[in-house]
Specification:
single chain, alpha/beta, 5-stranded parallel beta sheet, 9 helices, about 55% helix, binds shikimate-3-phosphate
């Protein structure tokens, strides 16, 4: 009998796994599959903000501005971190907030999903749901965001480089990195 990751590494299921990284990297698509593999609930902070506000993210930006969105995002993530363990996909800017980052450090294990900016730009171009790139050159925006955000994303507990691989392979890469991280934290488990 082969044991699945849920039974192979029960410690992976004891703390929320917070996925961080730039838009388009697959925080939601990989996160959903990771949650299914570990038999944990999956929550998407962007979706939760939209539900709480009763509006889409572009509508929130349009009606109230980015600072109001950031405030909602901070509150929603604090609530979700209270509800864990779960796999939590954060929005690309969430980890930049000092309070959110401190809460994630306290209550979750954080994983920075990283991929080439060209790959992200191609994915982001397919959707019109992200106000920061609307009507702009995706690669330029992502490059500017990367300069500011990468040093902060690098504070995540684990970094996983993803290519244009199938989601299930990305899930395996995340699991391997998390297992290695937990092994380093406490070599006897
Ligand atoms: C943002 C990323 C988006 C969403 C919002 C702002 C950002 O989430 O929160 O449009 O600042 O990078 P995804 O990373 O899930 O696309």
């Amino acid at each position: 009998m082969t044991l699945g990751p849920a039974s192979r590494h029960p410690r992976l299921r004891q703390r929320t796994i917070a996925l961080v990284g730039l838009m388009g990297v697959g925080k939601s698509s990989v996160g959903r599959r990771l949650a299914a593999t570990l038999d944990l609930p999956f929550r998407d902070a962007d979706t939760e903000v939209e539900v709480a506000a009763g509006r889409t993210i572009p509508e929130i930006f349009e009606a109230f501005g980015e600072p109001a969105f950031r405030d909602g995002e901070r509150r929603v993530i604090a609530r979700l971190l209270d509800e864990g363990p779960m796999v939590l996909a954060t929005g690309g800017g969430a980890f930049m907030n000092d309070e959110t980052r401190a809460l994630i450090a306290e209550r979750a294990v954080s994983v920075w999903l990283k991929a080439d900016l060209e790959i992200l730009a191609r994915r982001v171009a397919r959707k019109d749901s992200r106000p920061l790139v609307r009507g702009k050159d995706q690669l330029t925006v992502l490059g500017d965001l990367a300069k500011v955000r990468y040093p902060v994303y690098a504070e995540a507990d684990v970094t996983v480089e993803l290519g244009e691989t199938p989601h299930q392979e990305s899930v395996q890469a995340v699991l391997a990195a998390l297992e290695a991280h937990l092994g380093r934290e406490s070599p006897n488990t």
